[in-house]
Amino acid sequence: MSTASQKPVVYIISDSIGETAEFVVKAAASQYDSEDMEVRRVPFVSDAARVIEIVEEAAGANSMIAYTLVLPELRQLVEREAAKRDIPTADIMGPAMSAFAKIMKKEPYLEPGRVRRLDEDYFRRMAAVEFAVKYDDGKDPRGFRHAEVVLIGVSRTSKTPLSMYLAHRRLMVANLPLIPEVEPPEELFWVSPEKIVGLMIDPVQLRSIRQERLNSLGFDMHANYASMERIKMELDYARRIMDRIGCTVFDVSNKAVEEVANQIVQMIKGG
């Protein structure tokens, strides 16, 4: 049987999983009567011997080779070996990388699977943000057991902004306000103290923050919430809870969220 009458086969060679090349191949094939076309994806190709093996297999069929390979030597090998056997090829990534090189003015990373790792990084970050929202302000203490960091502190110690900032650093964070009239949920004490961070603040600064908050909401700035007596009572209570847990405590007085977050990240990585 001649190759012209054989079922068309597209070999997809990739140093990653080959999804990009397969998508492009199927998009191109949709412009033809391609129901009988076969796609054979060969992922994680990283050496010359494997490339030659695939090309030799393709030579026995009515085939073409589409590939996404970031290493120039492997791309050149595919073209050279395919040309010897009169096999058409489609370099899916090479031309785009060449065009990028002209505008980026620097060398590419040449790391196989880099786009997949970037995608994984993005989805991990989004999952962390969703986690921070779900377990913000002690809404569901069950989340403490799944969190990588649990922030505790009195009201207006930047627990929520810190949670969101850390989430963008791909950390799963929950937080809990400490209120003297409300006993902390038992789930808090199930968490390893190494994962809990207590947030303390200078009482004078906290009073100023709370007064600004009351003012922005149209409430009396002299309400009990912003009284020095109340604030000292809350901070004393918070300190007792933190001592009971035995967790690390950070003083957030006059510190930017980014500064405190970096300290927490260093603590977690160090652990």
What does the model show?
This protein has helices at residues 19-29, 48-58, 72-84, 94-104, 114-134, 159-167, 203-216, 228-245, 257-270; strands at 9-14, 38-42, 63-68, 89-91, 149-153, 173-177, 196-200, 248-251. It has 2 domains: 3-110, Rossmann fold; 115-270, 3-Layer(aba) Sandwich (Rossmann fold), CATH 3.40.50. By secondary structure, it is of the alpha/beta class. Helix 5 (114-134) runs antiparallel to helix 6. Strand 3, helix 3 and strand 4 (89-91) form a beta-alpha-beta unit. It has a 4-stranded parallel sheet, with helices on both faces. Strands 6-5-7-8 form a 4-stranded parallel sheet, with helices on both faces. The longest helix has 21 residues, at 114-134. It contains 9 helices and 8 strands.
Strand content of the residues, in percent?
A: 5-15%
The CATH topology of the largest domain is what?
Answer: Rossmann fold
Second-tier CATH architecture of the largest domain: 3-Layer(aba) Sandwich
Tell me the Rg in angstroms: 29 Å
Q: Give the count of structural domains.
A: 2
Separation, N- and C-terminal Cα atoms: 66 Å
Strand order in space, largest sheet: 2-1-3-4
* Global geometry: elongated
**Fraction of residues in helix:** 40-55%
| Main beta sheet strand tally, sense and closure | 4 strands, parallel
Low-confidence region ranges: none
Q: How many E strands?
A: 8
How many DSSP H or I helices?
A: 9
Mean pLDDT: 90
> Which CATH top level class of the largest domain fits?
Alpha Beta
Secondary structure class reads alpha/beta
Order of helices and strands: EHEHEHEHHEHEEHHEH
